[in-house]
Write a structure and sequence with these properties.
Layout (H helix, E strand, L loop, with lengths): L10 H8 L6 H30 L11 H26 L8 H45 L9 H30 L5
Helix pairs in contact: 1-2, 2-3, 2-5, 3-4, 4-5
Length: about 190
């Protein structure tokens, strides 16, 4: 069976860094690739949420907000699909003892657990976090955007983005550990 893999300009520097770890070099290489794919997935996720909140899913202050839940879920799904593709072709190209369908199933289940925790966190914490941070960050925002006056949804938007970032970090750690031990446990 031919293993399909993608070569990128990042392969050489990643290999050089990983080779410094001797026996663990292959796992370090996988972790670095996992982190890069995760960073790209974060950009997909963050951009999707930002665009949706700026256009059709504007947060509504004062209530646990369905628009926030929908926007962050759509961003998360877009990132999952991107990440699975990149991990299958670049991070773990040698993981083929299971069918792609089965790997996608495991990957999706692991990510859904992460999604659930992240979504609950964002849905219930975005407004208090935004209300806390907006007065602290407003002078800095106004330095970048003189004359900026926050609208009614400003705190909710800021809180959503801050909670999204913290949620992504926690979910990335969970996803690496769980996927390495379940989805891609057939590689040495």
């Amino acid at each position: 069976m031919t293993v399909r893999t993608i070569r990128t300009p990042l392969d050489a520097p990643i290999g050089a860094i990983a080779n410094r770890f001797g026996d663990k070099s292959k796992e370090v290489e996988r972790f670095l690739k996992f982190a890069i794919v995760g960073a790209f997935g974060f950009l997909v996720d963050f951009t999707t949420v930002f665009v949706l909140q700026a256009t059709i899913l504007v947060p509504k202050p004062g209530v646990p907000d369905l628009n926030v839940t929908i926007a962050t879920t759509i961003g998360f799904i877009a990132a999952i699909l991107s990440n699975f593709t990149w991990h299958r072709l670049w991070t773990y190209p040698d993981s083929r003892s299971r069918s792609m369908r089965r790997q996608l199933f495991y990957f999706a289940v692991i990510n859904m657990i992460g999604w659930l925790g992240r979504t609950l966190w964002i849905t219930f914490a975005h407004e208090p976090v935004g209300e806390f941070l907006l007065p602290i960050l407003l002078p800095h925002i106004q330095m970048l955007r003189p004359g900026y006056i926050p609208g009614p949804a400003a705190a909710a938007k800021l809180g959503t983005m801050v909670c999204l970032v913290t949620g992504v970090v926690i979910v990335m750690i969970w996803n690496f550990w769980a996927n390495r031990n379940l989805t891609y446990n057939d590689v040495e």
